[in-house]
Amino acid sequence: MGCAFLYTAVALILLTWEGNLICRGIFHLSGLKDSIAHLPTAAHNAGRWIGVFERLILATGIIVHSWEILAAVIALKTVARFKDMDERNFAEYFLVGSLFSILWTMLATSAWIAYDHNAGIDLRKHTEQWLGI
Fold this sequence. Notes:
Elements: H1 2-30, H2 41-63, H3 68-80, H4 88-119, H5 123-131
Helix pairs in contact: 1-2, 1-4, 2-3, 2-4
């Protein structure tokens, strides 16, 4: 059981903080980092927290087989930034960040689930039983 906490903690760190680091690296390498240079620092920090919560919510959706959560997250993000989408650079920044978050969450959560299924407590099976899926 203690091992389950360890690999779950590793998965959560990969999803959240490591995801932010990789995303920032992608923005830097692609030149999209300059697209948000005009925004105040508070907006940058808010974006990082939004990314963390986004990936956690998406991971929850993957674990419980609810792909509607993916659609809801994208819809909420789009509505929140709809006015900013007229600016091409920001739209590209937004799309790259969102698509990275989705891809990263799918990869990290799939690895987490696979490891948990083969060597752990099979959290997904217990979640499915608990939810009656």
